[in-house]
Design brief:
The protein has about 350 residues and is of the alpha/beta class. It has two domains: about 240 residues, HAD superfamily/HAD-like (Rossmann fold); about 70 residues, Trehalose-6-phosphate phosphatase related protein, domain 2 (Alpha-Beta Plaits). The chain has twelve helices and 14 strands. An eight-stranded mixed beta sheet has the order 7-6-5-4-3-12-13-14, with helices on both faces. A four-stranded antiparallel beta sheet has the order 8-9-11-10, with helices on one face. Helix 4 packs parallel to helix 10. This is Trehalose 6-phosphate phosphatase.
Length: about 350
């Protein structure tokens, strides 16, 4: 696939067939992954968010990269973030009381160079690396996968056309998207047999035509998301968009916190809301920026007209500690969730 065909966000480079599809988030559309999928009726997703916004004091939006913001491509280096998608993310991140993060299994350096999103929080290696909105970089784990295992996996891939090992330093991905279908089962069986003696030392995630390997105990995207949202007492709406197995811990955390978890593309991960693919995700980000901006204008208008005083019922609810209808998650919800078991990790 060419770079031009991968850059769905650029109108001049967009796939001609895709440009003929309706721009709303509904209907039967061509998935950016493969095949046709039905997207959830957009009215439900929009209504849910619209119901949360009026009482929200802020908005936190976390986005996966491959398969969510850009289509899945044959080789990772072919992925291109289109100008329209980038502009939509930057516009959303620039709004008052809005924070945006992009979380990927890619190396942080690779993600940074492909996104060019100043002021946006970035997470690499599915939680091991991060760059905050001020540009400060952090590594949350230093252990590495043994060189002996990497060499063994590289030898196995050399014997199977279409597979390769991507060594990311603190993590490793074994890709088999291009392995002929007739040989794929045998390749995966041999791969699992080679990984079995190392299971205690590895976090293994079986994604879309890839096995992602990270040192045991490495933080997940769920851990990275919890670090990012922090312990603010402000009621904020939390939204996460993801498409693959390494997004599961983050989607599970968002669901427990009362946020809005959204699956993008074919339903490979459990989430109550669904968008058809990267094109729909882009349009959703644009709509979300409009919705938040409208909410801000309405709030300023209410203050100007002297209607900012909360109702007697809502005041009583806050004093009693009850959550008012449509109110976003709060810090006490996060603290109580920490007493539960952590978000499940894919093995």
């Amino acid at each position: 696939m060419s770079k031009a065909s991968a850059a769905w966000g650029d109108s001049e480079n967009a796939d001609p067939a895709a440009s003929m599809q309706p721009l709303e988030l509904t209907g039967r559309v061509r998935s950016a992954h493969a095949g046709d999928v039905h997207s959830t009726f957009s009215g439900r997703l929009r209504s849910r968010i619209v119901g949360l916004l009026p009482r929200a004091r802020g908005l936190d939006v976390a986005l996966d990269f491959d398969g969510t913001l850009v289509p899945i491509v044959p080789r990772p280096h072919l992925a291109v973030l289109g100008d329209r998608v980038r502009e939509a993310i930057l516009r959303l991140a620039a709004l008052e009381e809005v924070r945006v993060a992009v979380m990927s299994g890619r190396r942080l350096d690779d993600l940074e160079s492909r996104t060019a999103l100043p002021g946006v929080h970035l997470v690499g290696l599915a939680g091991i690396e991060s760059r905050d909105s001020d540009g400060a970089r952090n590594v949350h784990g230093r252990r590495r996968i043994s060189e002996g295992l990497i060499e063994e996996l590289e030898a196995w891939c050399r014997s199977h056309h279409g597979s390769w090992v991507e060594n990311k330093g603190l993590a490793v991905s074994v890709h088999h998207r291009a392995v002929p279908p007739a040989r794929r089962a045998a390749f995966i069986h041999g791969l699992i047999r080679r990984l079995a003696p190392h299971r205690a030392a590895l976090e293994i995630t079986h994604g879309l035509m890839v096995h992602e390997l990270r040192p045991a105990g490495s933080p997940t995207k769920g851990d990275a998301l919890e670090r990012w949202i922090g312990d603010s007492n402000d009621a904020r709406v939390l939204i996460y968009l993801g498409d693959d197995a390494n997004d599961r811990p983050a989607l599970a955390l968002v669901r427990r916190l009362g946020g809005v978890p959204v699956c993008v593309g074919p339903r490979h991960v459990p989430a109550p809301e669904h968008l058809a693919g990267p094109r729909a995700a882009m349009e959703f980000i644009e709509w979300l920026a409009d919705a938040w901006q409208s909410r801000e204008k309405a709030a300023r208008g209410a203050i100007t007209n002297g209607r900012a005083t909360p109702s007697r019922d809502s005041s009583r609810d806050r004093e009693s500690g009850r959550r008012t209808p449509g109110e976003a998650r709060t810090a006490p919800t996060r603290r109580s969730d920490r007493s539960r078991s952590p978000a499940p990790r894919d093995r």
